[in-house]
TrEMBL record, chain A:
It is found in: Cell membrane. It is a multi-pass membrane protein. It comes from the Bacteria. This is ABC transporter permease. The lineage of its organism: Bacteria, Pseudomonadati, Pseudomonadota, Alphaproteobacteria, Hyphomicrobiales.
UniProtKB/TrEMBL annotation, chain B:
It holds the Pfam family BPD_transp_1. This is ABC transporter permease. Belongs to the binding-protein-dependent transport system permease family. CysTW subfamily. The keyword Lipoprotein does not apply. It comes from the Bacteria. InterPro entries: MetI-like, MetI-like_sf. It is a multi-pass membrane protein. The lineage of its organism: Bacteria, Pseudomonadati, Pseudomonadota, Alphaproteobacteria, Hyphomicrobiales. The chain crosses the membrane at residues 12-31, 73-96, 102-121, 161-180, 217-238, 263-285. Keywords: Cell membrane, Membrane, Transmembrane, Transmembrane helix, Transport. The keyword Transmembrane helix applies. Residues 74-283 form the ABC transmembrane type-1 domain. SUPFAM superfamilies: MetI-like (SSF161098). PANTHER family: INNER MEMBRANE ABC TRANSPORTER PERMEASE PROTEIN YDCU-RELATED, INNER MEMBRANE ABC TRANSPORTER PERMEASE PROTEIN YDCU-RELATED-RELATED.
């Protein structure tokens, strides 16, 4: 065996190990949801059951937690996407020397630990507005950094925008507002949709920031964590199965949409040629 | 700024400016300023706020320094986060290189999808998956006992090892993707040229791949360190009283100790630590903020 083929077989072995490391924990976790054992474990296998799913659906606290997560997620989407769009427009048209500083401030929430964002939001709103922890504050705290992610997504798309389209509309007598809604926003639509989806998912899975600002309420992620901490049943694994299934479904839909978009673009390019 | 008004007209321009301003002021800048201000004040009952005792003080920071347990946890958090970062880099480097430079076409696309899917799984669930493996009657202990390597299950939960394994797993993807993005832009011909000129595999990585991937390495390390030092999810699930993380100490000042000013000082110390780490990495690897926030 030559040294290069030896190296190659090492790399393939490493790849297999790496993906096993990535996936096996998730597989074990999902398998345990169907095991008829009192503890969340895959081994020893005690037979197939769906009772942990039944227990999960009967759990009212979890129902409420999921509902809270959805409400917070919708609130975060409703705030983050407009803020992200506004921030992207401002940055895109900014050429002054202060741009680096302003950019730095606007992306800083991404680089700030989530717990710090939760803490500063909690202190600020209680001191100035007398607002305590709860769903509203969770929306505000999460929006702080999720809006920055949304802004970067929208800004990336905006930078590929053909400005002559806008100028043509204006030259032909369209108003600025009309041009914005009919030319700029439609161009940005894929980025706006991606930002909304990203914002919802980020909000849904957030733990570090939400923990500090949620007050006496709970969210799905927080509820899962407290179940893990305080004696648990395989109902948590049942949630994991559902969420991972939804994730994979989402990934497939996203991939199909992306392929359709690529095909559409290829067709448009062909028609233009 | 004039450009914004000229391009979008006054209505949209004002709306965009106002929205951005509200976000930056009320969500980013003022809360941070307030937290810092808070951290330099004593904890007082509401009736005494604004009174003669409400003066700026370094007392809260002195507490952090004087309390040897908390100080120890602070430094442990730094070291452990660095170790997590280095481990994640070591684990991810070969994968990123393989994806960016060796794998092609469908195989590469499939591998990337395989990386993204776990990335979208909730951080809590990814951590919980390791809880199931490492717990007393978890798979890892069963396997070790079954193989006769140990007599009794080892308590991995409630130790730093469990927390660190969980962190490497949870944040590995924040390391893989920046590395991959940086390596992908490296022209394969450069590697071939180096090989034709007789460079060894190590030398090619040391002199060609790593210098090219520097921005990606910096970004991956910054993200991993920041997430590790700043997380409370992983230590709360995989740790115990004997393996407390600094964020857990902060949490207990807020919700068990009831001293928010003290908690704010601890939080600011953590923020300073992260800022220092980011600045050092940016200087060391010569990358700008624009490279990081991509």
């Amino acid at each position: 065996m030559t040294s290069s083929s030896l190296l190659r077989s090492f790399i393939y072995l490493y790849l297999v190990l790496f993906f096993a490391y990535l996936f096996l924990p998730l597989v074990f976790m999902m398998a345990a949801a169907f095991n008829d054992s009192r503890f969340p474990t895959m081994l020893p296998w005690q037979g197939f059951t769906l009772r942990w799913f039944q227990e999960l659906f009967a759990d009212q606290l979890m129902g409420r937690a999921v509902w809270n997560s959805i409400l917070i997620g919708l609130g975060v989407v409703a705030l983050s996407v407009p803020i992200g769009l506004a921030g992207a427009l401002v940055l895109y048209n900014l050429q002054s020397r202060a741009r680096t500083l302003i950019y730095g401030i606007m992306v800083s929430p991404i680089l700030t630990p989530g717990v710090i964002i939760g803490i500063s939001t909690l202190i600020f709103w209680r001191q100035y507005f007398g607002v305590g922890g709860g769903l509203m504050l969770a929306v505000v705290a999460q929006t702080t950094f999720i809006a920055a992610f949304a802004m970067l997504l929208i800004l990336a798309r905006l930078q590929r925008f053909d400005r002559t389209l806008e100028e043509a509309a204006l030259d032909l007598g369209a108003s600025h507002t009309w041009t914005f809604w009919r030319i700029t926003v439609p161009f940005l639509r894929p980025a706006l949709l991606a930002a909304a989806l990203m914002a919802f998912l980020q909000s849904f899975e957030n733990y570090n920031t939400t923990l500090f600002v949620i007050g006496t309420e709970t969210t799905m992620t927080l509820n899962i964590a407290s179940r893990v901490r305080l004696g648990l049943t395989p109902a948590v694994n049942a949630i994991a199965v559902i969420l991972i299934a939804l994730t994979i479904l989402g990934a497939i839909i996203y991939e199909l949409m992306r392929r359709a978009e690529v095909r559409r673009r290829a067709l448009a390019a062909e028609a233009a040629a | 700024m004039a450009e914004l008004f000229r391009r979008t007209g006054p209505l949209i321009a004002w709306m965009a400016l106002l929205t951005t301003l509200l976000w930056v002021a009320f969500m980013i800048v003022l809360p941070q300023v307030m937290m810092v201000d808070f951290s330099f004040r004593p904890s007082l009952p509401p009736s005494k706020i604004g009174g003669p005792e409400d003066v700026y003080t370094l007392k809260n920071y002195a507490t952090l320094w004087a309390n040897t347990i908390h100080r120890g946890i602070f430094f442990k958090t730094i070291w452990s986060s660095m170790l997590v970062t280095v481990l994640a880099l070591a684990v991810c480097y070969p994968i990123a290189y393989h994806l960016a430079q060796v794998a092609r076409g469908q195989a590469a696309a499939l591998l990337i999808v395989a990386l993204i899917v776990p990335f979208w799984v909730n951080e809590i669930l990814r951590t919980f998956a390791w809880f199931l493996i490492l717990s007393r009657n978890g798979i890892f202990n069963s396997a070790l006992v079954g193989l006769g390597l140990i007599d009794r299950p080892i308590q991995f939960i409630d130790g730093n090892i469990g927390v660190m394994i969980g962190m490497v797993y949870a944040y590995i993807l924040f390391m893989v993707f920046p590395l991959y993005n940086a390596m992908e832009s490296l022209d394969r011909h450069q590697i071939e040229a180096a090989r034709d000129l007789g460079a060894s595999t190590w030398r090619i990585h040391w002199r060609v791949v790593i210098p090219h991937a520097k921005p990606g390495i910096a970004v991956g390390c910054i993200m991993t360190f920041m997430l590790s030092a700043g997380t409370i999810a992983v230590p709360r699930l995989l740790g115990g009283p004997r393996s407390r993380w600094f964020t857990e100490v902060i949490y207990s000042w807020f919700f068990d100790g009831g001293d928010w000013n003290q908690g704010a000082a601890y939080a600011f110390a953590l923020l300073i630590l992260c800022i220092v780490f980011i600045l050092v990495m940016m200087r060391l690897f010569r990358v700008s903020l624009q490279d990081i926030a991509k």
